[in-house]
Amino acid sequence: MKFRSLGKSGLLVSELCLGTMVFGEEGPRGTDKATAIRMIHRYLEKGGNHIDTANVYAGGRSEEIVGEAVKDRRDQVVLATKVRFPMGEGPNDSGLSRHHILNSVEDSLRRLGTEAIDLLYMHCWDPITPIEESLHALDDLVSAGKVRYVGISNFKAWQLMKTLALSEANGWARAVAAQYQYSLVMRDIEAEFKDLCLSEGVGLTPWGPLGGSFLSGKYRRGERPQHGRLAVMPDDTEEAWDRRATERNWAILDVMDDIAANYNLTHSQIALAWVLAQPAVASVIIGVRTPEQLEDNLKATDAQAQLPAEEIERLNDVSAPPLGYPYRFIKVYGNR
């Protein structure tokens, strides 16, 4: 496992991050506690040091499982969690107010069994709370030693830029990480965020690198899934089947089929290797559910080293999203 700097900070994170959204979740897509703990230990044994969770994952059970798994090896782990979404029925049990942030962090510290959160993300923009209030509260937590680094997730580009500018103007802790959906079938963030993160020294920590399992290699044209994640996702969600089963995406899988056969790699390893090769990416979140998936995904770092640059370029070309305005205009007329 190799390590990369997390944005413009001195914090080193493994290039694969263990995502824990389904740990403790009930139902067919969840991972039970015992299996989850074994997977966390295996990930650490293989050299990973970056574990990502959130207070809302499995109603807080994900944080509890992660905390129990790392309690005797806490110094090996860069522990990331999030705040923003509802954690209760009250009007102040959601959002990015000082009230909710401070209460949520105390609860997360208790569930995680730790004195400090290494990386705390604002999970989504709050349209009600002034961002100055949120950033000041986060800075107070950093000063108090309860949070070490700050990140953002699911903000628009102007919102991220505003947080960076306000943090610098006021001397507050500055975001070093940005967590967004990013994969061969979901390259929307490239229009703004790739350049923004490179310019401002913010490390991308992508989630969904397998496109909600679409890039795992188990789907074929004309065969709508009857089981699994894509079979149950509602039509209005990011990972709905109709959003994935497009001609462009099938063409991506055709190229992946060819690469998999030529290099003896799995589709998941190829998909992860492509994300790892993208500029600004610091650590890719692998959302594994089973030990078998974990073992497969952990080999993606070797796959990236194995794939020649021309194969990465083939994947770039076949998955390139259409450029809208003003990006098409800038590409044609903006060079000097």
Structural notes for this entry:
By secondary structure, the protein is α/β, with parallel strands linked by helices. The protein has a single domain (3-333), classed as Alpha-Beta Barrel (TIM Barrel). 42% of the residues lie in helices and 12% in strands. Helix 1 packs across helix 2. The longest helix is centred in the last third of the chain and has 17 residues, at 247-263. It is globular, with a radius of gyration of 20 Å. It starts with a strand and ends with a helix. The mean pLDDT is 94.
Order of helices and strands: EEEHEHEHEHEHEHEHHHHEHHHH
Distance between the termini: 40 Å
What structural class should be given to the helix and strand makeup? alpha/beta
Query: What is the name of the CATH class?
Result: Alpha Beta
What share of residues are in beta strands?
Answer: 5-15%
Proportion in helices = 40-55%
The figure for the number of domains is 1
Over the alpha carbons, how many angstroms does the gyration radius reach? 20 Å
CATH architecture: Alpha-Beta Barrel
**What would the average pLDDT be, to the nearest integer?**
94
Spell out the CATH superfamily: NADP-dependent oxidoreductase domain
pLDDT < 50 stretches: none
Please state how the strands of the largest beta sheet are arranged side by side: 9-8-7-6-5-4-3-10
Question: Based on CA inertia axes, which overall geometry fits?
Answer: globular
CATH topology: TIM Barrel
Strand tally: 10
> Helical element count?
14
Largest sheet: 8 strands, parallel
